[in-house]
Design goal:
By secondary structure, the protein is an all-alpha fold. It has 13 helices and no strands. The chain is elongated.
Length: 306
C-alpha cells in the first residue's frame, strides 16, 4: 500500500502541473497581457535591428510628416515625424528600453524595501509595527513628483537617479500588502509547527513566510512598474520644464506613443477635441507662455552672471 501510494503521488504531480498550465493557456486576459509584454520586450531588446532610423536623427525637410493613415503619409515614416523630423516609430521602439529599465528597476528597489518593512512589522508586531506604520504614513504624506524634482535639482538627472528615487518613494504598497499577509500567516499552523521544531526567525521568514507572499508581490510589482513608467514620463517633462538637464536619451515609450495623436492634431485640428489635447493651444496662449519662459530664462542668466 505504501509503494502504491508513493507511485500515485509521484504520478499526480506532473498531472497537476499540466492542468495548471492548461488553465493558464485558456485564460484569455493572461495570454493577451503576456503577448503585449513579449512584444514590448522584443522591441526593447532588438531596438537597433527593428528601428528604421536613428532616434536622434533630425531632418527638417521631413518635419511634421503625417502618419500613414492620413493623407500625405508614406511608409518611409509609418507613424510620422515630430517637429525636428525625427521618426516616431524609431523613438517609440528605443523608448521601450528606458521604460522597461526604469519600471523593472523601480519595482526591484521598492519591492526589497517594502517587503522588508512589511514582513518585520507583520511578524514581530508591537513597537516595531507601530514604527513601521508611522514610517509608511510619513511616506504617504510625501508628494512623489515634487520630491523627485527636488532630488533632480540637487543631484542631477540620470537613469540611475530616476530609478533609485522612484524606488525609494514607491515602496509603501509593498509594505502594506506584505504586512497584512504576514499578520495572517503569523498565526497559521505551519508557522507554529516550524517554531515548535526549533526553526529560527530567519528560517521561518525565508521558508514559510516569503514563499506565501510571492503571488501578492507579483501583483503589486506589476502595478508599481506601470506607476513608475507613468511617473517617469511626468518626471522627465517636469525636469525639462524646470530647466534640469534630462540625460535619459530617447523619450520614454508612453510619451512617444502620444506623438502620433499630436501629429493628427497638427494636420487636422478639427478632428481632435481641444479639451482632449492640451498641447493644441491657441496662438495667444502659446505666445504668453513663451514670453514667460524667455523672461524666466533671462532672469536666471542674470542671476548666474552676478
Amino acid at each position: 500500500m505504501t509503494e502504491a501510494s508513493a507511485v500515485s503521488a509521484a504520478g499526480s504531480e506532473p498531472v497537476g502541473k499540466r492542468s495548471s498550465l492548461s488553465r493558464w493557456l485558456r485564460h484569455g486576459g493572461l495570454m493577451l497581457g503576456l503577448l503585449v509584454l513579449l512584444v514590448v520586450i522584443v522591441m526593447a531588446v532588438f531596438a537597433p535591428v527593428l528601428a528604421p532610423y536613428d532616434p536622434y536623427l533630425q531632418s527638417l525637410t521631413a518635419r511634421f510628416a503625417p502618419p500613414i493613415w492620413l493623407p500625405g503619409g508614406n511608409w518611409a515614416h509609418p507613424l510620422g515625424t515630430d517637429q525636428l523630423g525625427r521618426d516616431y516609430l524609431s523613438r517609440i521602439i528605443y523608448g521601450a528600453q528606458i521604460s522597461l529599465v526604469i519600471g523593472i528597476g523601480t519595482a526591484i528597489v521598492s519591492g526589497v524595501i517594502g517587503t522588508a518593512i512589511g514582513v518585520c512589522a507583520g511578524y514581530f508586531g508591537g513597537k516595531i509595527d507601530s514604527v513601521a506604520m508611522f514610517v509608511i504614513t510619513a511616506r504617504l504624506a510625501m508628494p512623489v513628483i515634487l520630491v523627485s524634482l527636488a532630488v533632480v535639482a540637487l543631484v542631477g538627472s540620470s537613469l540611475s537617479v530616476v530609478m533609485i528615487t522612484l524606488g525609494l518613494l514607491l515602496w509603501d504598497r509593498f509594505a502594506l500588502v506584505t504586512r497584512a499577509t504576514t499578520i495572517q500567516l503569523r498565526s497559521s499552523e505551519f508557522v507554529t509547527a516550524a517554531e515548535l521544531q526549533g526553526a529560527s526567525v530567519l528560517q521561518i521568514i525565508r521558508h514559510e513566510i516569503l514563499p506565501n507572499l510571492l503571488n501578492n508581490l507579483v501583483v503589486v510589482a506589476t502595478l508599481e512598474m506601470a506607476q513608475a513608467m507613468i511617473l517617469e514620463a511626468a518626471f522627465i517633462s517636469g525636469s525639462r520644464c524646470a530647466g534640469a538637464a534630462a540625460v535619459l536619451g530617447p523619450d520614454d515609450f508612453r510619451r512617444q506613443s502620444l506623438n502620433p495623436v499630436r501629429a493628427l492634431a497638427h494636420h487636422h485640428p478639427g478632428s481632435v477635441s481641444l479639451h482632449a489635447c492640451p498641447w493644441h493651444e491657441s496662438s495667444r496662449r502659446r505666445s504668453a507662455r513663451c514670453a514667460v519662459a524667455r523672461r524666466t530664462q533671462l532672469k536666471e542668466c542674470r542671476c548666474f552672471s552676478t
